[in-house]
Amino acid sequence: MSGLHGLVTGALGKLDPEDAHGVAIAALKAGLGPRAEARDPTLAVDLAGLALPNAVGLAAGFDKNAEVGPAMLAAGFGFVECGTVTPLPQPGNPRPRLFRLTEDRAVINRLGFNNAGLEAFAANLARPRRGVLGANIGANKDAADRIGDYVTGLKRLWGLADYFTVNVSSPNTPGLRDLQQGEALAELLGRVAEARAALPGHAPVFLKAAPDLDEPAIEQICDAVATHGLDGAVVSNTTLSRPDDLRSASRGEAGGLSGAPLMALATRVLGLFRQAAAGRFPLIGVGGIASGADAYAKIRAGARAVQLYSALVFAGPGLVLEIRRDLAARLKADGFASVADAVGTA
Ligand SMILES: Cc1cc2nc3c(=O)[nH]c(=O)nc-3n(C[C@H](O)[C@H](O)[C@H](O)COP(=O)(O)O)c2cc1C
Question: Measured from the CA of 21, which atom of ligand 1 is nearest?
């Protein structure tokens, strides 16, 4: 990290983390973000029909209201996932609810889907842009019909988002993760698939999973994704687990842990998804990526594309270009002409 963006990232690190995020979003909206060409011949990949100019994406939660998607695409991300958005605006949990674990290069959040709702999100997505923007959709905390909220999100944003991610893996909406299993999962994916079939045109729909799942649960999720014709899985969201070796003062806070300490767990779970998916659909690897080596490990474990968020808190948005350069060099050094050639070769 160097230059102006490095200085700014350093200064933001002294603010309350949620205030710092607000400043970062305002700066990006004002056009102050870094700029990098998105296309990279080695890293370009087809993901479920989406032509990604490079395989390194921005994970959900950074841009909850779809305010800075175009700015982050311009910073060099190959795709940007906005949201999670819920049908109605909601405030989320009381502050403080976002914690930097600086010594551990990690974050704990219990935001609870704070967002401005579907109408604001749709208005933002309707602005002109270049590149692939996805919508990560969720349910309001107090919804009478939680599954209905996903259908509402899909319908409202159809034609505005390039792809959709059904997020059932946030640990911060009580009971939400129950939608990852059994009858509830079958009903959710069935209703989403039915709604999509009735809409004109096509957009891929992915399911975003937690890392806190055992093998039978992962097999059940993969079978449900394939049965209902979804287009892939995003692995993974934050973890409720706490590795023993966390050092930061905030390690005991409630919420989902992300960043470096999630890398090993999320990559192991990604490998289990690869086995269970057995080539039926592609995977997007996320959780703990802070370097080209981390991104490469996800691809070797089975990811066709990757996403990151927490590492940006410590390194700033210029990190994406560093990761891309290093990833491309690693692919070439191992004799892979493209990301697609390296998927699942671990
Ligand atoms: C502050 C914060 C907010 C997040 N909000 C969401 C969200 O709204 N929806 C979602 O699917 N994931 C959300 N995530 C999870 C990330 O998309 C990602 O899956 C997770 O952080 C692991 O990646 P990372 O280690 O690169 O951050 C959030 C993560 C953080 C740190």
Answer: 1
CB-CB contact of 85 with 138 (8 Å)? yes
Give the residue among 75, 63, 61 at the shortest CA–CA distance from 26: 63
φ, ψ of residue 55 in degrees (nearest 5): -90, 10
Please state, in angstroms and rounded to a whole number, the distance separating the CA atoms of residues 42 and 299: 13
Q: Which atom belonging to ligand 1 lies closest to the Cα atom of 84?
A: 8
Number of other residues whose CB lies within 10 A of the CB of residue 144: 7
- Order of strands across the sheet that contains 256-259: 98-101, 106-109, 256-259
13 falls in which pLDDT band (50, 70, 90)? confident
Q: Please give the backbone phi and psi of residue 287, each rounded to the nearest 5 degrees, phi first.
A: 130, 95
Task: Note the pLDDT of residue 1.
Answer: 43
Q: In what helix (H) or strand (E) does residue 71 lie, and over which residues does it extend?
A: helix 69-74
By C-alpha distance, which of 291, 294, 293, 247 is closest to 266? 294
Q: What is the pLDDT of residues 257-307, one digit of tens each?
A: 999 999 999 999 999 999 999 999 999 999 999 999 999 999 999 999 999
DSSP H or E run through 101: strand 98-101
How far from 94 is each of 91, 124, 253, 288, CA to CA, in Å? 8, 26, 13, 26
172 Cβ inside 6 Å of ligand 1: no
**Taking the model in full, what pTM does it have?**
0.98
Among candidate residues 2, 169, 170, 291, the one labeled active-site is 170
Q: Tokens standing for 264? A: 């090993």
Contact between 276 and 235 (Cβ < 8 Å): no
Report whether residue 308 contacts ligand 1, using a CB cutoff of 6 Å: yes
The verdict on whether 170 is a catalytic residue reads yes
CB 48 within 8 A of CB 62: no
